[in-house]
């Protein structure tokens, strides 16, 4: 098992989850991917609450891939909670969604999203997008010490 920090994928659509995991696998990304299937599960994982109460919340994921349209707690509210807490305010959050709504894009950036990526429909384009995203956030980007 890799000692790299995990990637948190917040995705409620099983097909999109499988596609994203397949893309990470095909791109040979060594980081483990933790999947949260709704906003509440994502917040519980990040802050070490609920079913994740034994997890150390100081062990943050390398980055969060966040869908917007989620059950129980939508992605924008998850982002709002991440940015509102000093422990997670600098955690990289990449919105990965099908929404092209200008209001979603504006609000995501207003709340502190690091990037907003619309999911490509074509698998090869999606594979390339995941590879580029992983290369940037795991290799090229210098994470803030407070986020490590």
Automatic annotation (TrEMBL):
**Cross-referenced InterPro entries:** CheY-like_superfamily, Sig_transdc_resp-reg_receiver, TCS_response_regulator
Instruction: Keyword check for Signal, yes or no.
Output: no
Which positions make up the signal peptide?
Answer: none
Indicate where the modification 4-aspartylphosphate is found in the sequence: 67
Q: Tell me which species this is from.
A: Viridibacterium curvum
What PROSITE patterns does the record point to? RESPONSE_REGULATORY (PS50110)
Q: Which residues form the Response regulatory domain?
A: 6-134
Q: What is this protein called?
A: Response regulator
Keyword list (alphabetical) reads: Phosphoprotein
Q: In which domain of life is the source organism classified?
A: Bacteria
């Amino acid at each position: 098992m890799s000692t790299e920090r995990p990637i948190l994928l917040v995705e409620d659509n099983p097909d999109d989850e499988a596609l994203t995991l397949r893309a990470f696998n095909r791109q040979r990304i060594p980081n483990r991917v933790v999947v949260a299937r709704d906003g509440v599960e994502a917040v519980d994982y990040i802050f070490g609450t609920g079913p994740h109460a034994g997890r150390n919340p100081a062990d943050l994921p390398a980055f969060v891939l966040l869908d917007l349209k989620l059950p129980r707690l939508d992605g924008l509210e998850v982002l709002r909670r991440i940015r509102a807490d000093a422990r997670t305010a600098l955690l990289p959050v990449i919105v990965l969604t099908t929404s092209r709504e200008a209001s979603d894009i504006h609000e995501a950036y207003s709340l502190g999203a690091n990037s907003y990526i619309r999911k490509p429909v074509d698998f090869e384009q999606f594979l390339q997008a995941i590879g580029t995203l992983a290369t940037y956030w795991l290799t090229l980007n210098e994470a803030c010490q407070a986020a490590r």
